[in-house]
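User: I'll paste a sequence; please echo it back and then give the predicted structure.

Assistant: Echoing your sequence first, then the prediction.
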Amino acid sequence: MGEHHSAVRRASTRGMRSASARARLIAAITGLSLGVTLLVAVEPTAAPAEAAMAGTAASLARVVAPSTSVVSPAATDGAPTTASMMRLLQATAAAAPFTATPAPVITGKAVIGQRLLATTARWTPTATTSTYAWLVDGVPVSGQTSTAYTVRAADAGSVITVAVTGSRSGYDTTTQTSAPTAAVPTPVVASFTAAPTPTISGSPQVGFTLTARAGTWTPWPTFSYSWTRDGVLIAGQTGVTYRVTEADRGTALAVTVTGTKTGYSTTTRTSDAMSVPGATPTAAPTAAPTTAPTPTPTAA
């Protein structure tokens, strides 16, 4: 009986050494650190010479085998195959969930033109890659994948959220979404309290420069200009000044001023027209009067 147990111990020792070598080999190839105990479960069955202690070795394998749903080749009396080893590795290498994944938080006011920022507390373990996506009423906004978002006019009446997706090798890729903002308020459009008619300064002569005067608007807007000739836009003439050309002779010039400001209705005002004199007509030549010859007096 003592010899039998000694044989079992020697067989177990050989198996553990073999399993240790295999563990090191698998770690070098796959990057997975598998315990020696795990690999004892996939040792081949005993050789014929060791059949006398097969029952005891099988019992030992069952005792030291880890708890797993993968069937051990030793338990089926067969040598380990590539497929069985892969199933065992896959079961051992299954992705684990993050233990802490706090949702992102949005800071800033959800008002048109304002900037929102997404902040996320640390995940456990730390995600090696984090990506963001902004959503309006649950629909992702194309191209908005940074930690900042500027509220658009199109967002009026909607709520905004941000989603962060974290990933790390060996862990399940996880997405967390923030609480929604309040609905973006629809802006109230006001009117300018003062928007005077512009005037034109300068002489309406060919070669001279005219200047548009917008006047004093309340509140002060951003101005744009367009010049017209007989009511038709002059191509490319959108500055505050205009140089009169030959094409303007005999026409009427005017300027239109447009004022724009966020929160106010866009307003347009047009100046009175200024006439440009036409070409000076050339006077027809006047014929010189003919002088009648003076009669020569005759002698009496």
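The longest strand covers residues 252-260. The chain has a mean pLDDT of 79.
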